[in-house]
Amino acid sequence: MDYQQILNTIKSELDSLKYTGKVASYIPELAKIDPDEFGMHLHCINSGHYNLGNNEKRFSIQSISKVFALTLAMSISGDDLFQRVDVEPSGDPFNSLIQLEYEQGIPRNPFINAGALVISDILISELDDPKKSFLDFIHKLTGDNSIGINTKVYESEKQYSHRNAALLNLMKSFGNIKNNIEDVLDFYTYQCSIEMSCQELSTAFMIYANGGKKLENSKNIVPPQKVKRINAIMQTCGFYDEAGEFSFRVGLPGKSGVGGGITAVHPGQYAVTVWSPPLNPKGNSELGMYALERLTTLTGYSIF
Ligand code: GLN
Q: In angstroms, rounded to a whole number, what is the distance separating the alpha carbons of residues 195 and 188?
């Protein structure tokens, strides 16, 4: 398969499209990003790396961090974690409060904000220095110790976290948040403000494509049974109220972030990341979804 040729075709198609989406502005610092930024990186298990555009430039990973947080939480806590957060698609926006009220403070899944905040609460309870452990985990996955947070994005989101604070307060009233709300909000905002490039995200997500093992040294990071579960949650919940649409169009498990990134995996084949900041109305990268749809269409392969 000539993957580079396929990526080049995708790029020429994208060049003739005009996005209608908008860069996220509810975190003011994110609104400063150039909407025309674009990068794509495909890391194939058997044939290596293929790139397009600014694939080495770091951007705000935002909700893509929720996959790393879940993985870390599943590695230190048992199945009882899933009594505090469910594994069902929500069909609601990523920051919605509605279901929490009538479902007694148990979030639908770990990839909507409510669920990710419960995962943050678990990590704070279990780890002495959760911020350090979180970064250490990403450094272990990528082999790059220079990955860190963007302090401006972190400070900017902290000033505008009223909805996440509301989610935390509501869940705490049901007894599903154990730590101080300020501490959970701080840690969650920290993990969202990590910056990584397309290339680094694809490398980090290789464990989900490669049965839990790092590609370079076959070191087991996550047992295959947990990888199966994480990929299943990405497939059904990775794109909020657009998870069905992403499955329908792309046919791969993946996760988006409001920084404009999407990382997806084809188990046994590859990990792929696209970055294009303008978001569609559901908060997912408009051109990112287009590019991934074309990738699975032009290669003729998805998981289905
Ligand atoms: N930090 C963002 C928030 O909590 C992450 C949302 C996202 O990427 N969908 O609103």
A: 14
Nearest CA to ligand 1 atom 2: 62
Distances in whole angstroms, Cα of residue 9 to Cα of each of 12, 53, 77 = 5, 13, 44
With tokens 């049974």, the residue in question is 225
User: What is the atom index within ligand 1 of the atom nearest the CA of 113?
Assistant: 4
Q: End-to-end CA distance of the chain: give it in Å, rounded.
A: 19
- Residue with the smallest CA separation from ligand 1 atom 4 is 113
pLDDT tens, position by position, 55-95: 999 999 999 999 999 999 999 988 899 999 999 999 999 99
Mean pLDDT computed over every residue of the chain: 97
In the three-class reduction of DSSP (H, G, I as helix; E, B as strand; rest coil), residue 44 is classed as strand
Percentage with pLDDT > 70 across the chain: 100
pTM of the model: 0.98
**21 C-alpha vs ligand 1 centroid, how far in Å?**
17
Closest CA to 256 of 158, 143, 112: 112
Q: Which residues contact 24 (CB under 8 A, 6 or more apart)?
A: 30, 31, 258, 259, 260, 277, 279, 283
